[in-house]
From TrEMBL, chain B:
Limits of the Glycosyltransferase 2-like domain: 87-204
Alphabetical UniProt keywords: Glycosyltransferase, Transferase
GO MF assignments: glycosyltransferase activity
Top-level taxonomy: Bacteria, Pseudomonadati, Pseudomonadota, Alphaproteobacteria, Hyphomicrobiales
EC number: 2.4.-.-
Annotated PANTHER family: GLYCOSYLTRANSFERASE (PTHR43685), GLYCOSYLTRANSFERASE 2-LIKE DOMAIN-CONTAINING PROTEIN (PTHR43685:SF2)
Protein name from the UniProt record: Glycosyltransferase
Domain of life: Bacteria
């Protein structure tokens, strides 16, 4: 089904009277995010033809939209992950107690759970790393959002990656807590590693220059690290806008960066049981909204500089999570940690992105296989993905589905280009870490 | 094969259920008088399910539904005091005991009908009755209106009800259902939450699971459409076949419409749902045509009835046959009358056959609830339905009309 851009992104606070939902002139639909206590608890969307929806109608829909988001926060045992494991594995099932489930009132329990994540006083100091390249306007917007929460942040490192002008340096000048670091070698992994080396906080948080952080972003990151096993925390990436058709298809057809409103712990829930099938580490989150404990650098190293934008394309983040999880530590996804991301505007950018994603993914699978010897990565690379694409190609051969090639073709090219990483085979030393932290700082 | 049906009130102490002699368990979860969830579970040799096991099962299967209900409870919902007048029509043929049971349930609604609707009327349409028994049963219930529709066929009866009814809304229930106590209150809930809707359907749960045929039917999904409120429009992002896949809207055993709107689109198609040999499709056709008017279509789980499924395997097989037959007859008819949606309707045919074939394949490998022959029967019904069944039915109905003119 072709969706018609532009869509409006609407935020609804459940503490306020529920508004009716309607479209304005020319809008193709509305993407609605439901908030409670400044936490996103539900996401839904309406096409223009489904609207208007009266406020009483919308109120009646809300309980089932937000039940998972609310439940996973106050009763994690009764709401295990929504991530599906391979069909041959036992699916996670709820183990909580019925008394807790039936205990009222919910709204108070939820408010209590929410205030806990705000008040957990963590001794952590948070350094923020923003990698950028020639995107002055966006960077300014990102830094402005960080400036509003400057009191929660120890420092902000802006890494200027192979810049073509001094614009970034000028933007960062005179800003509170902001430090400018130039990295002439292109590549996102390189820039992130450089940024990390420049930090001194106990937690290093990453966001992208095309994102805007939520006012409670840093505080909640600090609280999410309360368990010592957690080496990496990711959060929810919401669309900042859905103005163009490529932004819309990225969010609605390709799933966007969002990972839902239910929190997850990855080590035992998903990673371990799925090793034989290729662990789906990309579910952990998105690099545009993640934070790492400094000690992780000693344990697993930094980002692999062959991966990521400017190199293989992407998946430097998921490969990093793979190392953390394989080392027996935990990654956590907490949707209360929010950034708003401005997706790519044009069709050409979206196609490039799809190609880069697939290429990066294939490279990362190969790197993970060599480094850890988990054959599941090969199974995914040479069995699961080809099978998926054969089905997709057959479906797209039907005349009525030719528009699917628009996004399918770049993915196929990306897959083939990614196999180029096979030449790294004999160069990867399984025992090495991409960036041993001690020797280069 | 029998399953134990247990109504579990979550506000009370959980019971321990004795499963001796039962192959499984069907739980209807209720809280504060509202239906929360339905759970179907095999016994797997257990003779007793004690309270703690039951609690685990409920947490595993119904956490989300229980929480959603609690959230709703804590929301401040302002229900309108009373809804406009409602007529409930029971179209029946030669099943007086069932009509009796159905009328009894309508008499014990909770809250009482007078508190829910401005006016409430019960209408029994006796379709081509061979004797006076139904009339006698109706006479025992006070305030029930009785009319005879001499032309045999469910949709003749439904159209008769349309003309006889006084209510602003007209609810249809089959004679083989029993309304749940909160049925009318559920209708009011759906209406007050969706004042712009013209058509409503509701949950259909099993009345009994005493025979293998009933258990099979329910385990394959029965008439259940879930415990989430739904609102259908002419588009649905999650269903590319909307609004043609009208089966997802609900079931004809429990549906209600604004009477004026049904009259405006010309009532029910009398060539569908004619009784044998084409006892079906009339509901699908009405759902589809209502959805095509552009008015929202609402499914409400609290607007619930219990349906007495076919008891014999042969009857069940016949039911699946008529599902295939009627579904395709409906599609053939819509394809003819609604050129704007022809492409989508053809897609629906393709999807339906692919889906049936894949179910058949699963069944052959022993991975389906139904034996292969049941699915084959439904498939074959679909083939016959495509091959001119609607036209044959139109001719049959024309003859009936002639006869009574």
């Amino acid at each position: 089904m072709m969706l018609q851009a532009p869509w409006r992104v609407e935020h609804v606070d459940l503490a306020q009277p529920i508004p009716p939902i309607s479209v304005h002139m020319g809008e193709g639909g509305v993407y609605v995010i439901l908030w409670s206590n400044e936490i996103p608890v539900g996401i839904t969307s309406f096409m223009a033809a489904q609207l208007p929806i009266l406020s009483e109608t919308f109120s009646a829909m809300i309980p089932s939209i937000v039940a998972l988001g609310v439940g996973s926060r106050i009763l994690p045992d009764s709401f295990p992950g929504t991530l599906r494991l391979h069909r041959s594995l036992p699916q996670p099932s709820a183990t909580g107690s019925l008394e807790h489930l039936l205990s009222a009132p919910l709204s108070e329990a939820f408010a209590r759970a929410c205030s806990e994540i705000e008040t957990t006083s963590s001794p952590a100091t948070i350094s923020v790393v923003v990698c950028t390249r020639d995107r002055g306007e966006m960077l300014k917007r990102c830094l402005d959002s960080l400036a509003r929460i400057a009191k929660d942040i120890h420092e902000i490192i802006v890494v200027d990656n192979a810049p073509s002008s001094p614009e970034t340096a000028e933007i960062t000048r005179g800003r509170e807590k902001v430090r400018y670091v130039a990295e002439p070698r292109p590549g996102l992994s390189v820039a992130r590693n450089t940024g990390m080396r420049a930090t001194s906080g106990s937690i290093i948080a990453f966001t992208d220059d095309d994102a805007v952080v939520h006012p409670r972003w840093a505080r909640r990151i600090g609280a999410a690290f309360s368990h010592p096993d957690v080496l990496c925390v990711t959060g929810l990436v919401l669309p900042l806008e859905l103005r163009t058709s490529s932004q819309l298809s990225f969010e609605m057809e390709l799933g966007g960066f969002g990972r839902g409103v239910q929190s997850h712990r990855f080590r035992d829930q998903v990673f371990r049981p799925m090793i034989p099938f290729g662990s789906p580490v990309w579910h952990v989150g998105a690099g545009a909204n993640m934070a790492v404990r400094r000690s992780a650098l000693q344990i697993v190293g930094g980002f692999d500089e062959r991966l990521g934008a400017g190199a293989s394309g992407c998946s430097e983040d998921s490969e990093f999570w793979y190392r953390i999880l394989a080392a027996g530590y935990d990654c956590r996804y907490d949707p209360s940690i929010v950034v708003h991301h401005e997706h790519r505007h044009t069709e050409a950018q979206l196609e490039n992105q799809m190609r880069a994603y697939m290429k990066g993914h294939v490279s990362a699978l190969l790197v993970q296989w060599v480094r850890h010897g988990h054959a599941g990565n090969l199974r995914r690379l040479f069995l699961t993905l080809p099978r998926h694409y054969v089905v997709a190609i057959l479906a797209a051969l039907r005349p009525s589905c030719w528009n699917r090639w628009r996004l399918l073709a770049p993915q196929l090219t990306g897959y083939i280009c990614g196999l180029e990483a096979l030449r790294w085979f004999w160069k990867i030393d399984p025992s090495s870490r991409p960036w041993p932290s001690g020797d280069r700082t | 094969m029998r399953y134990l049906i247990a109504r579990i009130d979550l506000d009370e102490q959980l019971p321990s259920l004795a499963l001796k002699g039962y192959q499984g368990l069907a739980l209807i979860l209720v809280r504060r008088g509202r239906l929360i969830e339905f759970i179907l579970e095999e016994a797997r040799g257990r003779e007793v399910v004690d309270a703690s096991e039951l609690a685990q099962l409920i947490v595993r299967k119904a956490s989300e539904a229980i929480l959603a209900d609690q959230i709703r409870h804590e929301q401040q919902n302002h229900l309108s005091s009373r809804m406009p007048s409602v007529t409930v029509a029971i179209c029946t043929r030669n099943r007086p005991e069932w009509v009796d049971r159905c009328l009894l349930a309508l008499g014990s609604l909770n809250p009482a009908a007078s508190d829910v609707a401005e006016d409430f009327e019960v209408l029994v349409v006796d379709n081509a009755p061979p004797d006076e028994r139904t009339a006698a049963v109706v006479a025992r219930h006070s305030g029930v209106k009785y009319v005879v529709e001499p032309r045999a066929g469910l949709n003749f009866g439904r159209n008769r009800a349309l003309n006889e009814a006084k209510g602003h809304f007209l609810a249809y229930i089959d004679d083989d259902v029993v309304v749940s106590p909160g049925w009318l209150a559920g209708f009011r809930e759906a209406w007050s939450e969706n004042p712009d809707a013209k058509a409503f359907t509701g949950l259909v749960l099993p009345f009994s699971l005493d025979t293998e045929a009933q258990v099979l039917f329910e385990r394959r999904g029965g008439f259940r459409r879930g415990f989430r409120k739904k609102r259908f429009c002419s588009v649905d992002p999650s269903n590319p076949l909307a609004p043609c896949g009208a089966g997802s809207f609900g079931a004809g055993a429990n549906m209600a419409f604004e009477r004026e709107s049904v009259l405006k689109i010309g009532g029910f198609d009398e060539a569908l749902d004619t009784g044998a040999p084409l006892p079906g499709g009339g509901d699908l056709d009405m759902f589809y045509r209502m959805a095509r008017t552009g008015a929202p279509f609402v499914y409400e789980p609290q607007f619930a009835v219990l349906h007495d499924h076919r008891r014999e395997i042969a009857q069940l097989r016949r039911q699946y046959w008529t599902w295939g037959l009627a579904h395709m007859a409906f599609i053939v008819k819509s394809h003819r009358t609604d050129p704007a949606y022809r492409r989508l309707l053809r897609k629906l045919v393709r999807w339906w056959f692919l889906d049936q074939f894949s179910q058949f394949w699963l069944s052959l490998r022993g991975r389906h609830v139904l034996p292969p022959n049941m699915i084959a029967v439904e498939l074959w019904g679909g083939v016959i339905g495509l091959l001119g069944e609607y036209d044959r039915s139109v001719r049959r109905v024309a003859k009936i009309r002639e006869h009574y003119q």
